[in-house]
Structures are given as C-alpha cells and as structure tokens.
Give the backbone structure.
Amino acid sequence: MKPRLAFWLALAILALSLCSCRRADERTVLRFWGMGREGEVVAQLIAEFEREHPQIHVEVQQLPWTAAHEKLLTAFAGDALPDVCQLGNTWLAEFAALGALQPLDGYVAQSPIVEKDDYFTAAWDTNVIGGKLLGLPWYLDTRVLFYRKDLLARAGFLDAPRTWEQWQGAMAAIKSEAGADAYAILLPLDEFEPLLQLALQQDEPLLLDGGTRANFRSAGFRRAFAFYTDMFRQQWAPAMSDTQISNVWNEFARGFNTFYITGPWNIGEFKRRLPAELADAWATAPLPSSDGRGGGVAGGTSLALFASSRQQQAAWQLIEFLSRPAMQLRLHALTGDLPPRRSVWSEPALANDEYAQAFRVQFEQARPPPPVAEWERIAIAMQLAAERVVRGGVSSEDALARLDAEVDAMLEKRRWMRAQEQAR
Amino acid sequence: MKRPGAGWSFAAPALIVIGLFFVGPVVAALLLSFTDFDLYALADPHNLRLVGLRNYVDVLQTPLFWQALGNTLYFVGIGVPLSLLVSLGAALLLDSRLARCKPFFRTALFAPVVTTIVAVAVVFRYLFHTRYGLVNYGLGWLGLEPIDWLGDAAWSMPTIILFAVWKNFGYNMIILLAGLQAIPQELHEAARIDGAGSWQRLRHITLPLLAPTLLVVSIITVAGYFQLFAEPYVMTRGGPLQSTTSVLYFMYEEGFKWWNLGRASAIAFLLFVLILAVTSLLLRLSRRWGAA
C-alpha cells in the first residue's frame, strides 16, 4: 500500500510541476491589486499593455478600499503579496517599515518614460522614504475648497478667499445672511482631512526626531487648531458628523453650506448630482492659508513594486507603462483622477478644466504627512482632539496636551527602535 | 498495557487536529499577549519585546475598551433575553397542536439563520434607512417622526439587537422545539383533566421540563452574543460615535487594522475570562435554582 501511495504522490507532484513549468514558459504572469474605482477600470489600460507585451499576462484583482489595508498586511504575513499594487501614500511608510517594497531608483534612472522633474515635487517626495524611492505617484489627492459662487456673491464677495482673514470675513458675512438653519462651511467632525490640510500649511513639523515625538503644541499647529475650532465656536460650521448628513450634495444644493473641503472625486460627483440650475453656481479654489501662500496635504496613490515579486523586470514594465503621460490621461478620462505629472496637465482635457486647476495650484505648495507607519492612527487621534474641544467643551490646551501624550505613547516603539539603532 | 495504547492511537487523529488547530493557537496567543508583537516585529523579530502584563494594564486603561465593554453588555443584556423569548415563543407556536403547515413555518422561521449576513445586512440597511426605509415609512404612517436608526448613537445598538435577534432566533427555536416535543403528552392531558389552563400548564409543566434545554440554549446564546462582531462590522463599522463598537470589534481593529497583535491577544483573553465568568455564574445559579 505504502510504496504505491508514494508512487502516485510523486506522479501527481511531477504532473503539477510540469503544468506550472509549461505555463511559465509561455507567459509571465503578473499579479496586480487595484482598489476601488481604479481597480475596476485599470483592466482597460492593461489590455493595451498586454498587446504591447504579448509575453506578459496580468491578473488584476480588485479590492474594496475598506478591506484593502487588512488584506495587504495579511498577505505580507502570509507571503502572498502580488507583484504590483496600488498603494495609498499614507500606507507607504508602513510597508517600508516592513521592508516589503522594492526601491525603484535603479529602474527610474534608466527609464526613458519616468522623469523625476515632470512630477510634482511633493508627490515625488512622498514616495521617498529613508532616501529611497519606494513607489511611483499614480494620481494625486489633496483637499480644496468647493464653494457656491452665488451665495458668496450674495454675502458681498466676488472672489474666493485667499487668506484665513478673508475667509473668516466671508464666513461671518455668509452666516449672518443665512440665519440659524444654514452655515458657512461644512466640516464633518469625523473627517481628519480638513484639519490636516490646515496643519500642513504650517512650517512646524507635526512629529519631531525622525517621527518619534509628537509636536502638536507647536505654534503652527496651535494656530491651525485654533482656526479650525473657532469655525465651530462662531457657528460658521455645524458640529455634525458624516453620518448626520445624509447627502452632502443635496445639502450643498439647498444652500445649507457655502464652503465644503473635499477631494478630486467630488468634481465628477458635483457635476452629476447638483441640479441643472446650479451647474454654473459652484467653483473650486485652493484652500486659503494663514499667510496666503497656500498649501495642503500632498496625498494620493502610488504604484508600488513588492520586494517579494519574482518578476521584477516585468512588474516594472507595467508600472512604467501606467506612468506614461498618455495612460495617465486615459486614467483621468476614465475616473477623473488627477495625474501627478505636470506635462499631462498641459493637455486640453485638464488645462481647460477650471475645476481641476485649484488642485494643481494647491499641489505645488502641498506637503506630505509624516512618513511613519502609525500615521493614520495619529491623524484619527488628532481629529478626536478637535472633536473633544468642539463637542466636549474641553479647553484647547488640555486637548492638545492629551493629544501629545497619546501620540507619544503610540510612538514609543519607534523611540525604542531608534535607541537600539543608535546603540548599535 | 495494550489497551490504553490502542485507545490513544484511536484518539490520536482527533487529538492531533485539536492540538494543532486549537490548543496550539490558544497557547501561542497567550504567549503573544505578553509581547508587543506589532508591525515592526513582523518585519524583524528583533523588534519583539517581552512586556509582561503591560498589554493587559494598557487595555484596561483605554477608555474605548470600557465603552466597548459597556456596548457589549448592553447587547448581551437586552439581546439574549429578547432572543430567548422570541425563540421560545416561536417554538411554542410551532409545537401547538393548532398550528397548520408546520414544516413550512419551521423552515421559514429557520431561514434567517442560514442566510448570508452580508447580504442580509444590505437589506436591513435599506429597511432602516432614515428616508427611504420601510420601517420609517411605517412610523410615518402611524404619525411618528422618522428615526435615524443607524446614524443616531442612541438608536444604533437597538437596531443591531433587532438585526441579531432576527438573524439568530431560529437556531434556538429548533433546539427548544426538540425539547418541547420530548415532553410527554400524558402530563399535559393529566393536567388538563385536573383543570389546569394553558397558562398554568406552561408554567408548571412545560417550563420546568424545558429548563435543562433552556439552560443550554441560554449559555450558548450568552457566549455567542458576547462575541458580537459581524453585525456591527457589516452594518455600522462600530459607529456612530463608537456606539456599536463591541469588545471583539475593538480587538479586531487593534489586531488587524493597527496590527498590534500582542494587545489584541490580551483583549481576546480578557473577553475569554469574562465569558467564562458569566457562563459559570449562569451554571451555578441554575444549580442552586434546581436544588431549591
């Protein structure tokens, strides 16, 4: 019985390995994980890639954003990462800490397609961690001001505000015009992005000592924090969470709020969802800043090559292909995603898009958030501090002291690792 | 000497499987809970530190843990009695001799148990939608104000409880039905001859004879309801204002969202101790009740 079983097993293994060999001989199989809307449409771009590279076959797997993070970490732990993946910028640091990403500097140096100077500086810099380029920007994300031109004009302002002072003046005028049931601005209290934009306009870094110490009691962050919480104190913004607002487009259309801070995907949504009579009544503008210089968060999504990939060359070819200006233009046409390359912005599709221009202007001044693995958790704690002040009536001083303590506790491991490194 | 050896060898396959897939992971998790295993340790084992009981102390000092515990107790405290009542009611109706089409109703009432929770959650989110939901439509018909079932921190947990009870009562119903059918009809007949009404028969015959089954069912339900996770995960993601974050959901976020597996293991063991304490308390109470 036993020798027989062994014989059959051996035969089965042989057959299996033969199968896989033959398949590998024919075509290289690349695995690509895409998320959300990009995961849906990337197959159209990849079809063209496969035509150009008949020897490569790309398997696209679509992940929902809400589950992507867990899935990627689990895949790392289980050694099942794909070759190429679309990775949110804030996750890069995490996967860099894991050593899961393949540096791209060598490939970029030889590439005729990827030119560093063509990329927005902030977008490129977000991908450089520890002096190595660990991802290639695919599309941009920063949050700008969406506003109702008609309501702003009724309050006596023709142009969008550029400084915080002008903005405060406009909000006060709008609020006195609007009465008790409408507001100047909508800032959902469970979204950390608006406050983060204001915080990254400041010169002081949010974390110190190589991302091992919290710095939320700096003059800069205090300024942004005070400005943010003051909008609620003045009743310019309602103390509401996302869940309490059933439909932001409806509220915007009925004049509940004049200003709204949101991202590029909402250009398409606003065009689609606002009633026809309001089609020309809204616009976008870069976020006002304390000194009028502008600025915000340099966010977005990158294409990353995992170090565990066994077909690095083919994987790089895919990344390079998707980074071509023509492909970025296609992606913009399909999804509305904003390209990270300046040359693409001179194409008519983008150059003539008045709504998209605000993002471009802001991106030239944008800064990346601190590249630490704990960042998302820190940003949530930061927002919770603001919520404590707005809803809980805690003083700013106490909230910021608590925030510093909380974030310092989150970074304890990083401090210990840094000390270990220095001791070595 | 031969016999025990043979016994062990027969039990070995089961023991190996249990050891490999149950005892091993549990021991590993216990050890993990005394370390600070996290993302950095995953990258490089040298970043792993033994921290003793610090994870437990930290968790017990986290306000969100206590809130999650409060939410879980709320869910268990209301959900378990409600679920048992509904299951018992449905089982009694099905056991009644007046009931028609019993197999049909038995299947229909059991159906929610075998449905996929994710798909059902989509339907429930529509039913409980603030503006388009059937439930609020009914309330409007009665002249009541619409309720933001899943968006209001005061209503989110009741909605989750309703969802969980609807989803799970069929399972207990089947067990209770089996218990009911094991009660000899002669006792009912004798009681009826003695002039006992249906309420008296329920109180003095059905419930006492059903007590052992009820005990088992309530212990299973308590243990199950303490592990509330899927319902808030698919319906509310722990919100609004963390009002539906259960202990297990808290553990999931700590472990798989932030990848602090050491701390997540500590939460798991705290929950284990809690469930153990509550179920053994139930057992002890029932024993005292049985003796009296």
User: Anything to note?
Assistant: Residues 20-291 of chain B form a domain with the MetI-like fold fold (CATH 1.10.3720.10). Residues 72 and 217 of chain B are 19 Å apart (CA to CA). The radius of gyration of chain B is 24 Å.
